[in-house]
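quick one, 149 residues, struct below
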Amino acid sequence: MISKILVPTDGSDTAQKAARYAIDLAAQLKCSIIVLSIVDKRTLIAQTIPAQENARHITEPVEDYLREAAETYAREVKKICDQKGIRAEILITSGHPSEEITQQAESYNADLIVMGSHGRSALAAAIFGSITYSILHKETKIPVLVVRR
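---
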């Protein structure tokens, strides 16, 4: 029986499509959703976002900027959950996305992971990297439902 669905989001159109699919599934199954957004530590470097590129026109650390973006993506999904009457919890973490997704899914006892895929080939995934491809090949007993672009 599925009682918790973990939905990772990065704000992309594909992630939003997967989130909507998970929300509809949660409504049918009467289960809750854990919305996970991750600050990808691989992209952090010791610099700041220039003021002219920042909506608030101030200099801020990159990690703060990325955390704020992650929170925004997660709130967008939670808002849809709230509109549909689905119980949802937001979780913001930092680290490598594929490791964080599997770790948090196991930690929160998720019964299913629903995530998007851009539909790259295995070769493209190997060259450019694919979080979904990595999750599918990690050693976890949690089923993964992939929503294609």
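The beta strands are 4-8, 32-40, 48-49, 60-61, 88-95, 112-117, 144-148.
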